Amino acid sequence: MLTNTKHSPYAKVSPLDWDAISWTEGLWADVEKTSLGTISHIQNLFESTEISHVVENFHVCAGDHEGEFGGTDFGDGDFYKWLEAYIYSSAKNKDEKAFKEIDGYIDLIARCQLEDGYISTKQIIGERQNNGIKRFNDINDFEVYNFGHLFTTACLYNRITGKKNLLAIAEKAANYLAVMYAENQENGEVQTAVCPSHYMGLVELYRTTGANKYLELAKLTIELRDLVKDGTDDNQDRLPLKKHTKVLGHAVRANYLYAGVSDLYLEQGDSEYKEMLDRVWRNLVDKKIYITGGCGALYNGTSPYGNFFEDSMVHQAYGYEYQLPNVTAYNETCAAIGNVMWAYRMFQIDPKAEYFDIIERTMLNTNLAAMNLTGDKFFYENMLRRTKRLDYELIWPLTRESYISSFCCPPNLARTLIESFEYAYTVSDDSLWIGMYGGNKGKVSLKNGVNFKLEQVTDYPFSGTIALNISEIVGKVAFRINVRVPGWVQKGSLTFNGKIQTLDKNNSSSYVSIVIPANQTEAQLIIDFEMPVRYTIAHPYVEETTNQVAIERGPLVYCLESPDCSLDSLDECMVDISTTFETESLDLCDRGLIGLKGEMLHRKISNYDVSALYQPLQHVTLEKTKVSLVPYFAWDNRGFGEMKIWLPAIYK
Q1: From edge to edge, which strands make up the β-sheet containing 298-302?
Q2: What is the pTM of this model?
Q3: Are 489 and 553 in a shared domain?
Q4: Where are the beta strands (DSSP E) in 361-517?
Q5: Is residue 191 in some structural domain?
């Protein structure tokens, strides 16, 4: 869920209207088309009583059907996330038939809600059937998580349609939470809600309704974290919030938490929260994030910071600094989405290019990789290496699946991708800020009274050439186009009004401001980022990538897959860093992509025993072998095989 911060006092930039921009061509336009099928696919799964039981739970709760609760505890929240995606796609396509169906779903939700505002199908059904299930008995029942996604979807629906039917349900639920948290504050018995989507949801409810009570409730729920007894690193509540210095514990919970605190800061400007957010952000991006933008490296473990002999178990979590395994990389999709939401809010607080560098890296690599090219199969976790066999079993499948038992990620992904155009631009008083690049067009209104149309023509991220055409400028004052120079750029240029401004590594990960004079009615800005293939190395403390390189081009991470290498195992492949890779056109699943082709080295070791843990290194020969590389987001679309991002390197 994106933010509506036009009137937030501490927002230096804010989003355009939801319908201001549309993708027109290229990768993001393809993704948007694919996402329409994803939304339909998920709807079918949610409507199925045999597969997910999600919609059926609402029918049982409303008294339409006989039966029991089925599926996951967070199924309600997953349904709200999917509904958000469906609302967006229906609005973009002006699908009135779909909106009638949406209103039918909203009526179903309303019939489930209790008079006191409480709404969570598992608990309502459980209390009615007297089966021992009751409300707020276990934080891992995800009730407040479900509430939070209800809030954000209701705000979106109101923003797009003006209707208040879903908003009324959300407000009633928020009023229930207000009573509960007031009681918690009075008696000091506080639980930390896991995956706290309600922090963002409550602030957005305040922005939508103007009711200050929801902002104060968001502030209270965040402050009450400090009263939790026997808190854990897994839930980020072992230490008082303002004393956090590292990102730790469950990655989804952490990223949702800091996104919510960022929203609170945007409204109230508590400097101690801002200082904490900056500290934790630096710990993430400097020491704990994957090259793909994935985060949360560990499935299960023990917190590196807490007392080992106490309750310090962590789950789907950040580990030590530089602890970034490849085969077992967890990188839950929801964590990556949470990181995008957090970074986007941090950008609105302080518009630095590094935040959009992370957004773009995460969106183009981990988030797109979490779904196949046809939009109907998904990864829960996002590994950086797949081998032919493992002597142990990972918790999730090694291939994408149409339905996974913990189905929180696909609807989260669907709403994120269908809303991706909102990451293209933000605005301040007199400036347009470029966020994610991609072919698009739309209309812009600045607070200084300037209005104009724009069109971005580009094949980014496969090409670094971008034409920004601005027309029908209305307004009598100058304004600015703030051009984001991504962190990977080492050379390039900006051409405006016949003048060429060169770019070099000193401009990388920064904004360059172009002033459009007051007397112009149209303008064209040509952006050219040179996009050579580059080898990337990791910090020496990242032990699993020692003496290895990753291959990148522009914002994309590339990988080697079995279909593109004739060797028996990718482990036999090495990179001579003096080798030059060339681009090549690919067609995978009817999607036009740009791959890389070149030569690597086939390492042959005499008498090598692939099953030996240790053995003498004998005679080694190196022979050239031709390979191709695909963007990481496009892997696992051609059957089961090996995949590697990090490859052993030879330096001459």
Answers
A1: 249-250, 313-318, 298-302
A2: 0.97
A3: no
A4: 385-386, 425-427, 431-434, 439-445, 451-458, 465-474, 479-485, 491-496, 499-504, 510-516
A5: no
